[in-house]
Amino acid sequence: MKRIVLTLLITFLTAVAASVGCAAAETAGQLLTRASRKIMNSGSVTASFSYSAAGSRGSGTLKVSGRKFTVQTPGSSSWYDGKNMWTYNAASRETTLVNPTASELAETNPLLYLATANAYNCAYGKGNSATKKIIILTPKSRKQPVRSATLELDGKTLNPMKISVISSDGSSSTVSITRYTLGKALPASNFIYPKNKYPKIKIIDLR
User: Fold this and answer.
1) From 89's CA, which of 30, 97, 158, 176 has a CA 20 to 30 Å away?
2) Element (H, E) at 35
3) Alpha-carbon torsion angle 75, 4, 47, 182, nearest 10
4) Using alpha carbons only, how large is the chain's radius of gyration in Å?
5) Phi (first) and psi of residue 93, to 5 degrees
6) Coil, strand or helix at 27
7) Which secondary-structure segment (H or E) carries 11?
8) What's the pLDDT tens digit per position in 22-76?
9) d(C-alpha 105, C-alpha 85), whole Å
10) What are the respective helix, strand and coil percentages of the chain, to the nearest 5?
């Protein structure tokens, strides 16, 4: 479930990190392209979120800087430093360490998919207005884990509000942003597994 939540959340943040004041004639695809460039050039994203997925509810935090990321929820946490990825599972009290492949990274971090809008068909959705911007994303490839996603943005600020997603298996999930910061400097240590925090946790090295 952690991977599903991470997938939805980063997809959301990537898609909505656009600046205010887009032209009225701008298409949904053009907005997504501009949003992706904006977040890639901003340096980082820090967010708090709540989610409901696979029959569960919870909250967590996310930090993204370029290709690096860390996500923390009560059940599990992941850290990726650009080469190594650690995933801590609270239930098993174990941490796995891998050098993820490109496909594994793309599955975990759709930011790699969303460098451009070309991976998705984009359209404004029903209910789109001056006060609420709604964008529908439909993946062009059936290999992606998301069948469709509906993004809701504040019409005045374009701040992220909510994403509703239908995954490839037909299940639905929702992520809501409770706090969102763009461009804050993030030390490299944010993306490395904090061994001192988990001194008694076994690390399974699968590299």
Assistant:
1) 176
2) helix 28-42
3) 150
4) 17
5) 55, 45
6) coil
7) helix 2-16
8) 444 677 767 666 666 666 677 788 888 888 877 788 888 888 887 788 888 888 8
9) 9
10) 25, 40, 35
